[in-house]
Specification:
The complex is a heterotrimer of chains A (289), B (227) and C (256). With 289 residues, chain A is of the alpha/beta class. Chain A is built from 6 helices and 12 strands. Chain A has helices at residues 11-26, 47-56, 74-86, 135-143, 148-161, 265-273; strands at 32-33, 62-67, 90-91, 100-104, 117-121, 172-174, 178-180, 198-203, 208-212, 218-220, 247-251, 258-262. In chain A, a hairpin with a 3-residue loop joins strand 6 (172-174) and strand 7. In chain A, helix 1 crosses helix 2. Chain B is built from 7 helices and 9 strands; from the N terminus they run βββαββαβαααβαβαβ. In chain B, a hairpin with a 5-residue loop joins strand 1 and strand 2 (19-31). The two termini of chain B are 28 Å apart. By secondary structure, chain C is an alpha/beta fold. A 6-stranded mixed sheet of chain C has the order 6-7-8-3-9-10, with helices on both faces. Chain C has a 4-stranded antiparallel sheet with strand order 2-1-4-5, covered by helices on one side. In chain C, helix 4 runs parallel beside helix 6 (152-164). The chains are: A alpha/beta (289), B alpha/beta (227), C alpha/beta (256). The A-C interface holds A 140, 144, 146, 148-149, 151-152, 155-156, 158-160, 222-226 and C 78-79, 82, 86, 101, 104-105, 107-108, 111-113, 115-117, 120-123, 125-126, 143-144.
Amino acid sequence: MSDYNFAYLDEQTKRMIRRAILKALAVPGYQVPFASREMPMPYGWGTGGVQVSAACLVPEDRLKVIDQGADDTTNAVSIRRFFEKTAGVATTGRTSEATLIQTRHRIPEEPLTRDQILVYQVPIPEPLRFLEPRETETRKMHALEEYGLVHVKLYEDIARHGQIATSYAYPVKVEGRYVMDPSPIPKFDNPKLESEAIQLFGAGREQRIHALPPHCKVVSLDFEDHPFEASKADHDCDLCGSGTSYLDEVIVDDAGGRMFVCSDTDYCETRRGAGHRGRLAATGQEDAA
Amino acid sequence: MIEISNLSKNFVLHNQGGAVIPVMRDAALSVAPGECVGLIGASGAGKSTLMRMVYGNYLADRGVIRVGDVDVAQAAPREVLALRRATLGYVSQFLRVVPRVPTLDVVAEPLLALGVAREEALGRARDLLGRLNIPERLWPLSPTTFSGGEQQRVNIARGFAHGYPALLLDEPTASLDAANREVVLTLIEEAKARGAAILGIFHDEAARARVCTRVVDVTRFTPGLAA
Amino acid sequence: MTPLLQVKGLTKRYGARIGCADVSFDLYPGEVMGIVGESGSGKSTLLNCLAGHLEADSGHVMFDTRAEGLRDVRAMSEPERRMLARTDWAFVHQNPRDGLRMGVSAGGNVGERLMAVGARHYGDIRAQAQDWLGRVEIAADRIDDRPTAFSGGMQQRLQIARNLVTGPRLVFMDEPTGGLDVSVQARLLDLLRGLVREMGLSAVIVTHDLAVVRLLAHRLMVMKSGHVVEAGLTDQVLDDPQHGYTQLLVSSVLQA
């Protein structure tokens, strides 16, 4: 522990990042540039989220890290260990117990509260990037609120697929002003972007931080005759029976067998702990005992 | 309707040693509504030049060309454009149109430009093309592929589509057969009857004698030829 | 009548070289102005200065805005200028690739300007795109194809549809028929003439093709070395050119 400054980053860097975070909170949805540091992990593994988390953590925090909703995947485990080692903070798998949650590609099912911070790992913060490659131009478009192009993308979806086929990283308009990419969360999670918690988005390689303060208005873009839908697989969880949580499809054999399970592992476990059972739960290992 | 006075023009050939060729000196004439004035004079005397100056196609160096209440010699381009749209028609010897446009649309175009409803304009075009004996099967085709005589008649139909108060005719009966010549002369007589002021060049003497109220010999205005 | 566009003393230099110098003219509603001249004569520089793609060094470009009457476009803020560029103005590039989004379907290309000014009903946007594709003679079943699958002439017509869908009042065109073969050119000319007439469009068209301006432009400016050497009615300038350079230009055209 004494080998590292608290939470790995030096105090000046944390100060710089906190300034960027405050600015991002003050201008919801606006991408604030920051001097992203080299982190002891490759770009694309959450360097932006880790720096934001590092700048927010205090010794009293209880940290939860999820990757696609799961606490036990490599990326989540590595980052949790990183902060256990460099900050010595307590960690947890329980959404309700965590004070700071770093996430990749999901928002927990359980509603977040005013005492929590959700930190997103963001690969590409610019919602206009694939429509307009010039950074000078996209910045100008944000500045002048020229967002017609985002709808061109949605138009193309409907023209090609009969519906808006964008199912993750679905663009939103924040407080009626900035169009924002909510990172590659499923569009099912978009309604949860309006939250009591503070939401911070860190993009390490792209050196941008953006944020949603609590109770911020977040509208998913759509057409009047093709309204936004927070869709999910049309099943119940095979383990906990939930009909309202976001599901992962798991192939279980080579004969076409499959099961649907909550992508939020903590949510699923909590429900099963409370006695809820899904279609395949009886044969599940955990319930065998 | 058409009043010309003191009209003079030189051509200056800048790329041929700046040669100055005087082509018109102190031309003067007038055409009243319902009148048809024929321009005569030897080839090269300046008949076409004078017509083109009236239409604004050639610039006047000096003088007045009053058509209605516009002095073409002084008018701004957009005034000349408005004059050509509503007041001053011109049947030249050559048909100049966008390739591929159907004959019917070519003839209706002057009316469409004036804001006449499309069906009405096309009706007028059909009427004129019929009278001028352009076979109906040719109407949907572009006139660019037509024979000289057919092109000439399309040009005439176009020139008479709108009832211009003033009309310039450059050899309207050239290269026409007897029947079509008769139709054109009747059209000119009709225009006179409704009060159009017409200035024309007719090499066809019989035609000239039939439609022209009087003639003006432009040789009087030709520098070097005038007495 | 107020001119739609009033240009006064517009000058652009590239260092010591002149791009265009002291250009002034008025353009009235419904008028098409042609600008001709040889390569390097400054006609494209002038067009780009007018359209705001290049910053002129001095002079005024006054446009009769719907809300406030004549305004100097050069003195407008950038948001105002960009708003103008996607509502009342349009720009047709010589190369359709510069004016189209090649990765977006024909319908999306036409719909973009509608969406940029706030259209949010997919069905309406598509219907308008369909209508415009029809007006530029692109078959309805090509609406979901990308421009990469179109011929050069179709791409150019698509670019025109994309530009005119919001009903602009002023269109800038840079060699709109350049690079097209002759029969396709004729079709495009006919289309442009019809649109100009029906929509009451005003246009500034840069070209080096005298036959094109004769058929399309009401008025003509001839440029040489950045200066306007002659201006007037198109047919008058072509048939009775006054300036030595224009005389040379007109007499140099090969007769077909």
